[in-house]
Specification:
- It is a single chain.
- The strands form two sheets. Strands 1-2 form a two-stranded parallel ribbon.
- β1, α1 and β2 form a beta-alpha-beta unit.
- The protein is α+β, with helices and mostly antiparallel strands.
Amino acid sequence: HKQPACMLFANHIDSLAAAGAVLADVWVEGVSMPVVDCLGDEFLAYVKDGMTITIKEGGVVVVE
């Protein structure tokens, strides 16, 4: 039961990552892993190690 808390992508999610998220949701009981894509290159450049990222209702991503 060790999976990422969420998956964030600057561009479109690739098919392998999407399949992994779907399979984890279907096959592993109690697993919930939000996936957000198309956040943009600015997001990727802004996020640094040690920052806290929160995913809110509707896919809103907050970086602190």
